[in-house]
Each structure stands twice: as C-alpha cells, then as structure tokens.
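Need tokens for this chain, all 373 residues.
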Amino acid sequence: MGLGWVLLYAIVAIGPLVVALTADPPPGRGFLEEVSVALGFVGLAMMGLQFAAVSRFARVSAPFGLDVVLHFHRQIAFVALAFVLAHPAIMAAERSVDLINPVAAHWTARAGQLSVIAVVALVATSVWRRRLGLSYEAWRVLHGILAVVAVAAALVHVERVGHYVSGPWKQGLWALFSAVFVALLVNTRVVQPVRQLRRPWRVTSVEPERGDAWTLTLEPEGHGGLRFLPGQFAWLRVHRSPFAVREHPFSFSSSAERPERISFTIKAAGDFTSRVGAIPPGTRAYVDGPYGVFSYDRSQGDGFVFVAGGVGITPIMSMLRTLADRGDRRPCLLLYGNADWDGVIFREELEDLCDRLDLRVVHVPESPPEGWD
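Here are the structure tokens for all 373 residues:
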C-alpha cells in the first residue's frame, strides 16, 4: 500500500510535465525556456499535493503514520520551492528581467509573481515562525491563506499563458486538477469538522500530575467513544468548535482497552498547555484521530524495550496500561529519563504496574537526589 501511494505521488507530480511536453509552444522559445516551464509545472503539482499531505486521509497515512507524512510535507516544501523559483529565474535570464518586475510585467506574469511571492512567504513564515513572533494559531491561518493564494495564482498564470493547456482534453485535465484542489480544501475545512461535530466529547476530570503536567480525561457524548492503538495520538480542541483553527496534537495516555474514556497527559509548556489545569469539568471538546504508527500492536514481539524522556512517557504509558488491562505478561524494560526525581510523571503508578506486569523500570534523572545509585 505504501509503495502504491509513493508511485501515485510521483505520477501526479510529473503528470503536468507530460501534458506540457505535448503542447505546441509559441515560436522562438529556446531549450532553457522550455526547461523552466517544465520545472514550473512540476513545482505547481507538488504545491497542490501539499494539500493532500495535510488532509489527514486515514488510507494515505496508514502505511507511514501521519507524523511521517507531515514530516515529508515539511521537507518536500523546500524541493517545491526550488522548482518554483527556478521557473521565473530562468525565464528572466533568457528573455527579459521585466518578467519579474511587477511594474513592467503584464498581468499574466504578475499572477505568476504573486504565486512565487506566496510560496516564499509560506516557507519563510514556517521556518522562522518564532523569530517573527507568530503564534501557532496566527501561523496556521496565514499558512492556509498563503497556500491557497500560491496555488490559485499559479493556476491563473498557467491558464492565461494558454499554450500548455489548449485543447479540450487538456482543458478538462486542468479543470480536474483545479477541482481536486478545491475538494481537498472542502474536505479539510468542512467535511472533517462536520464529522467531529457529530461526535462531541465532554471533559470529566483534570488531574494534576508530577512534573507540572495534567491529565485531561474525556467521555463521549452520544456515541461509543474512540478505538485507537496504544501509542497513537489525536488532535484536540477544547472550548472551541471543530471549525476553529486552534487544535493541538497529543498522545493518548489511557488504555486502548477503554475507548469509552480517553485521557491525554499534557505538560504545561505553552499558551494552551499552561491553561489545561484551569479547564472546568463539563467543557465540550472535539477529538480528531487516531493517528500514528508508534504502537506495538503493529509489530508484535516477545517483549518490549521502551525509552522515554519527560512527558514523552505518555504514549508508552498508554501501552503499559493496555498491556495491564489485557493481562499481557510479556517482559518489558522502561528506560525513563527526567530532569529530577520529583518531576517523574506517573512515578507511583509505574511502581504499581511493576506488580501487574513483567516490567522493570530504570529511572535516569539528570539531577539525581543525594545518594542515588
């Protein structure tokens, strides 16, 4: 399945290039100009595919894990940027600098310029978000706007040039590409939030933990809960509708054997996380998930070695609790690093789990108490 998605990505990315090669370009075009057009088409296709990468389609992310897909989304953006920048740079060098001059250029070129500027701004604000003082929520809104502007302006640019999308079948293919682009936006911003709206959750408790962390427990309202694999994560919205921009990814810390009651253990470290302890019971919440492939249920073994640091214990805690609920006695070793002994999250429960499981816990505090062995 994973290889199939990789091949499909390659076909879609190169597809517009194949269409361009069958075009009848105007006379006087040199080889390098045609190369620049080819690079522009590939860059545009890759920009459109970025929307698919972040659409959270379960079938797409299942073979890799959504965390891997999002990492690919971030890294491939630099490749797409290189293709996008190469197109106007070569055209300006081969024909006229006026092509990249917003004052002297005609509207066809200006649409392309707008697309390039949007792509550069999109990547720059993502790489230097904190240096620019952008909050996560402001960045997400800006990121979405810039992405839409970049692709829409590029589509307008190609349509106005016209040489490479002339003829009924090419026009139809181009219309299909545009329709898929719109459908991805609708799925992310409308369809998925509507599904979440039909499956609300209610905060039942907010319990303090060691290490300045809180465990937020939710119960479903009007549905049977959420099935997930131990070790997976989900996006959480609290105090907001599923259409709101603000959402945060957290690993489940509860047992996968209890889908009717899910928990997230969150360390106070940012704008939202620092206010988790003040969330009152009864608050409405929405959960988008599960996602991720970090689970022993995907790769069975005779025993397990877990390595965690600080609040990174949460997905492993979900695995240990699930093993205990299943009565699984396979041997487990947990190497758990923390800043200090008092900040060890779940310290007492880990001791209890050693009695319920074949579990050995090795604590590794950075600043151990006096006399620590």
